[in-house]
Design brief:
The chain is of the alpha+beta class. A 3-stranded antiparallel beta sheet has the order 1-3-2. Strand 2 and strand 3 form a beta hairpin. The protein is elongated, with a radius of gyration of 16 Å. The protein starts with 6 loop residues before the first helix and ends in a 5-residue tail after the last helix.
């Protein structure tokens, strides 16, 4: 629970959530995540067509999502395949995050 963390741990946790929510604050990245959720693992070559972005623009957005662990990448041959990091996405709905916004019962 949040109240049992020291200040440094809280700061790290807040930084992690800040970066994650910044990554989620873009409609294109939300669309990418939506498509990965609907389709499972997708080749970057197909993802460019699905979301309608050039490969360079798509790579920019994928890197942001990768940096906060919301998606995972697997290289198969010469192609990169992407999928949601389901554990990390589920963590956004975790009790830990909810405790930030609810006062501690006394």
């Amino acid at each position: 629970m949040l109240q049992h963390r020291n200040d440094d741990e809280q700061q790290e946790m807040f930084k992690r959530y800040e970066a994650t929510f910044k990554a989620l604050s873009d409609q294109l990245r939300l669309k990418i995540m939506y498509e990965l959720n609907q389709r499972g693992q997708v080749c970057v070559c197909d993802l460019t067509e699905i979301v309608g972005l050039s490969q360079s623009k798509l790579s920019y957005h994928l890197k942001i999502l990768l940096d906060v662990n919301l998606i995972e990448r697997e290289k198969i041959g010469t192609w990169n395949y992407y999928r949601l990091n389901e554990q990390e996405v589920r963590g956004l709905l975790s009790e830990e995050l909810c405790c930030i916004f609810y006062p501690e019962k006394k």
